[in-house]
Amino acid sequence: MKVMGGCLITFLILVSSSWAQEGSNASDLIARMKTQLDLQEDQVTNISPIIEKYTIAFADLQKSIDDGTINASAIDSQTQGIEAQETQELATYLKPYQLSEWRQMQSQMDQAKGQDSGAAGSDSDQYSNLPKNNSPQN
């Protein structure tokens, strides 16, 4: 019984630390948005659940990518779909100039993700399912 209790505690610690990481990512993003978009407190209150929801959606997508359960050709469309839904929900609470700034933030985050995945392998390209061209470039 003691071993089973220890396993349960370990499981709960892992689950809570995973949830805390996702929560802190959402919290970090909300803090950045508050500063960069000059959000009012009521806007922060309204967008927080949206950001938390889509932070989880992106984390789930990343898990699918990591464990190979998503078709590589569907990754871009899935990402764009999640981003579009998120922006649509945020548009209810953001002023037009804030929405424009949000889209720029999204673009910067996408570029940062692309650079991170590109750093993993110099031979990787945007579409991993395309054949590699190993001939020298002129």
Concise account of the structure shown:
It is built from four helices and no strands.
Overall description:
With 138 residues, the chain is an all-alpha fold. The protein has one domain (2-106). It has four helices and no strands. It starts with a helix and ends in an 18-residue tail after the last helix. Mean pLDDT is 75; it is low at 1-23 and 119-135.
Element order: H for helix, E for strand: HHHH
Q: Give the class from helix and strand content and strand pairing.
A: mainly alpha
On the 0-100 scale, what is the average pLDDT?
75
- Spans of at least 5 consecutive residues with low confidence: 1-23, 119-135
Proportion of residues in β-strands: under 5%
The proportion of residues forming helix, as a percent range, comes to over 70%
Determine Rg (CA atoms, Å).
Answer: 19 Å
> What characterizes the major β-sheet?
none
**So how many helices?**
4
| Strand runs, count | 0
Give the distance, in angstroms, between the N- and C-terminal Cα atoms.
68 Å
Morphology: elongated
Total tally of structural domains? 1
Give the SSE layout.
Blueprint lengths: L1 H35 L4 H27 L7 H17 L4 H25 L18
Helix pairs in contact: 1-2, 2-3, 3-4
